[in-house]
Structure prediction request, 425 residues.
Amino acid sequence: MLWEKYKYAVLLLLSFLLFSQVFGQGLDLKDVSDMSKPKGLDVSGAAIPTGVSQIREQIRKLQEAKESASTQLRQLQYVPIDGEIDGDKYIVGPHDVVHIQIWSATTVDEFVEITPDGMLVLSGYGAIHISGESWNRAKAKIEEAVKEGYNPERYAITLSGVRIFWAHISGAVKIPGSYQVGATQRVWDIIQLAGENSPLGDLSKVKVVRKNGKEIVLDITKYLSQGDLSENPYLEDGDVVVVPTVDGKNGLIRLYSAGVRSGFYELLPGETVREFAQRTGIFSQSPELSNVQIIHGDESKNVNLLREDSALEPGDIVIFPTHLDSIIVGGLVLQGGAYPYYPGVSYYTYVAMAGGPGEKGSESRVSIYRKGKKLSPQKAGNLLPGDVIIVHHSTFNRTKDFIETLARVISSGLTVYYLIDRLTR
Prediction:
């Protein structure tokens, strides 16, 4: 019988899969929690948070950030603004406060809050529906009522306070959910409140769904790299912001630099390094374009974009050198990106700054890239400004993934063989 012939091999594979799931999870936690201070580190071990503590601390800070804005806004009824409100773009809504001053036979000086059903009640005149109008249009309606009801000598109508409301965010962010925001806060603000996007979040295709059913698609990367506020509009009551996952049908590219979002990007068909830099806004940040590093697997090369170009491949890591006061941390860490350079601080500390190794990363498998050369931490010695730290797969997880893949292939083969054997009898 086929089962009798191969049962021990199948049982062995199943036992290994079960063992790797149980033991592997425990080992990963142990490896992260037992991170010890390497030799030559210039700060005490107690001063360096472990990977687990970094994760917990990040979660705590993100939760506090989510609650802090809501609490402060409720207590102070204060909303920060980034300049004068654009009267054509600011949309009036419930709980906005309007200051009305009238000088006539009857003097009026009062602060009027727009009611939940969108009405402004003007003393001696009645209710005016202004919710959903731009501030300029709403102000014109109020002026008409003031002139009709009071025939004033002079009057003043000002927006005294802006409202706080609920907006919602979902998709590739760290803490999706509902947040209290102010009417002068923008789409990027709620993404930050939600812990910012994950490395796989695509900020170039952020969708905003309004309460009236209107949908808009924004390229937040243009706001981050060029300051384009048209791609980062004000939030409105009940907005649902959706950060999609990067489309990887043509492959993914991972970018590390300063001034732009570090993380995964979609690879466009036939795209080159120069085209990728133009699309992501790297050129506007004026990095060192003569020494762009491309890492593919265990190989790396330098590209001088001032004189040459190079095609990109799926899975490439593209590193645009940062300012000389920065260190880039990437690979299998929780929060890759550029970090300030501190003389004498070890690679281990920078990995901790980046949240520690990810689920399959290992602090014992780290490479240092310096001016295009791949070095081990021991050969690299003290870190230098502009160094790039890449955390690789742990040996255990790499072996585990390989054997699990092999086991699935063998299992599928045995199943097919068994079915053929049964059908041909």
Summary: The domain at 164-243 is CATH 3.10.560.10 (Outer membrane lipoprotein wza fold like). DSSP finds nine helices and 20 strands in the chain. The mean pLDDT is 77. The CA atoms of residues 170 and 176 lie 5 Å apart.
